[in-house]
Amino acid sequence: MSSTPGMLLVISGPSGVGKTTITHAIEKQVQGAVFSVSATTRLRTLIEADGEDYLFVTNEQFDEMIQNGEFLEYAGVFGNRYGTPRSWVDRELAQGHLVILEIDVQGAVSVKRQRPGALCLFILPPDDDSLIERLRGRGREDESVIQRRFGEARREMEIARNGGVYDIFLVNRNLDDAVARVVALVKHERARRGLA
Ligand code: 5GP
User: Which of the listed residues 46, 138, 167, 182 has the most CB atoms within 10 Å of its CB?
Assistant: First the structure.
């Protein structure tokens, strides 16, 4: 599949680091960029739309999707399951698109193994304080969930640093700046591969 004309961009990073904002900015600023909507067994929050942020499914539906080979990769994160739709991704790649996967470290390991040409990016917070402040600022979860996510985030950053999967680590000090750097990076990489 690495001969397909498109390109896979994996974006990982702890909750609250600004991944989603960066991802959507790339989608707007890079021609042919599309966001892969994962399936998840997690409950939908009030600010999320089914089919846009995630495809919200039951555990039974998720099992069925695994059995049907529908996932390029899937993983358990924070007690829920998340999976990337294989056929959609391949269709978009075949059309020459930049397919953005916003997935965790386990997913990135699996994708890089299957598709070595994937460009894997890990977004880091400037420091722990700013990460916890951003988690609170999202207003999405209560404090106990925030503390758990903070602990998970630190672990995830450690695994990412030692995993050898990520091509680039980018510190998100300022959102506009981070977006500009990712967009430049993607354009450079696409041009280098003759996909511009
Ligand atoms: P959240 O519940 O905050 O939306 O996402 C929790 C974590 O699951 C994030 O790190 C997110 O990147 C990751 N995630 C979302 N979709 C997928 C997926 O399809 N596969 C994997 N492996 N991780 C995912």
Answer: 182
